[in-house]
Amino acid sequence: MIKISGSVKALPLRRTAAACAICVFFTLAPAPALASGGSHVSSGLTVSAPRAEAVNGLPHRSTASAASIPAEKDPHATAAKPRDRDYYEQRGEIVWEVPSAGKVIALTFDDGPDPVQTVQILDELKKYGAKATFFVVGKRAERFPELIKRETAEGHEIGNHTYSHPFLTNNRSTESIRSEIAATQKVIKSINGTAPVLFRPPGGYYHERLVHVSLAEGCLPILWSWHQDTEDWKAPGVNRVVNKVLNNAREGDIVLFHDHVLGSMNTVDAIRKILPELSKRGYHFVTVSELLKLRGSTSGVSKPSGSKTK
């Protein structure tokens, strides 16, 4: 609290109340923290934090305050048009979902590969002829290249999830953002012969510089349907993950899972229940790139060969 004060001449008792009225106090309220799914606009730049995410080896994040994400001058920023979800969707620079794609869903898995969880998830996907997109961490891909090869061989898509999983908030330099993306591009290309064309920023943070750097590296930024964040990284229990997906399933959803969660097999066990139930409802499971190709389609897709019927 800031008090503006000075030398005050003594006043008669009857005038004390009037004198007190001229004392002015200013209260500085703290900058509001970003709520789940919210954004903060600073200097024409929006940094959005749609959710909290646990990062293996890093502390959990619940909110991101404006003070912790100082804006950096951006040549692309325009004060008259805040960089919110609508802005990026209209420009086709970030994708959250493709609601007109027909009765298809894109299952996505972050933070892998994992020698136990990824293997079991791949086994379940194979049973149903389901395709998924794995947003991999570069340094883990280096450790487990055989899993990257298997994912590719079985028709899944590999996406870029940075090399070391930092939160790419806009207090990071452009070069540090580029190096995280470029390093994983190089790793995946060395394993598969082809670099990813999709990028998912850890924690779901996005801002103008990140978008432009990602696109310059040949990757379209991909987030997820806000109603399909399973929060499986919290190990909330299998049924909670299952119900989150089944109760909110819509055509063109991009569902967020993790295939590397320390101390929890919730995701693996949930997938075993989700795949057969959504299959019964007539959903087909496609990669994100396949989903994007169906943008604008309302006729649905034919059942993938090898799909398991129940």
Summarize the model shown.
Helix content is 32%, strand content 15%.
Could you characterize what this model shows?
It is built from ten helices and 13 strands. The radius of gyration is 24 Å and the shape is globular. The N and C termini lie far apart (66 Å). The strands form five sheets. Strands 7, 8, 9, 12 and 13 form a five-stranded parallel sheet that branches. It has 310 residues and is of the alpha/beta class. Mean pLDDT is 79; it is low at 1-80 and 297-310. It has a domain at 85-294: TIM Barrel, CATH 3.20.20.370. Helix 6 (174-192) runs parallel beside helix 7.
What are the defining features of this structure?
single chain, 310 residues, alpha/beta, TIM Barrel, globular, disordered C terminus
- Structural class by SSE content: alpha/beta
State the CATH class of one domain: Alpha Beta
Q: If you consult CATH, what is the topology of one domain?
A: TIM Barrel
- Counting DSSP E segments of at least 2 residues, the number of strands comes to 13
Let me know the largest β-sheet: 5 strands, parallel
- The helix tally amounts to 10
